[in-house]
Amino acid sequence: MTAMEPHPFPFAPWIWRDAVAILDTRNEAVGDRDRPDVGLLGYEVEAVDGRIGKVDEANARVPADCLLVDTGTWLTSHQVVLPVGAVARIDHDGRMIHVDRTKEQVTSGPEYDPDTFDADEFRARLGDYYTESYRTAP
User: CA angle 128-130-135, nearest 5°?
Assistant: First the structure.
């Protein structure tokens, strides 16, 4: 499949692809079934072309169907929000979340700003951004 060919199924940005994988019973932090993302705090995030960052401890500030990822360095903070539909798989043993986007696609996504965050407006921009990136996937 080339970058210009349509994918065989529509991208669903707000739905976990494998709900069983996120509710791994080895992780005691996953006790709140309304926020299964809580058990993923601190997990590293890996794009198709390398490491992006990690799930930020402030993840509860974004909707439960998103992950707040710090893509910055030890000197800077750059927080982006990933819709859970971008998660391809989770490795609980390695504490790693694999996403099906490139590093550039993730870091170029809408940046999270706690001072101006409006969940509805941001969600619309985020959904549009990732749906479009899925159409032009590598």
Answer: 95
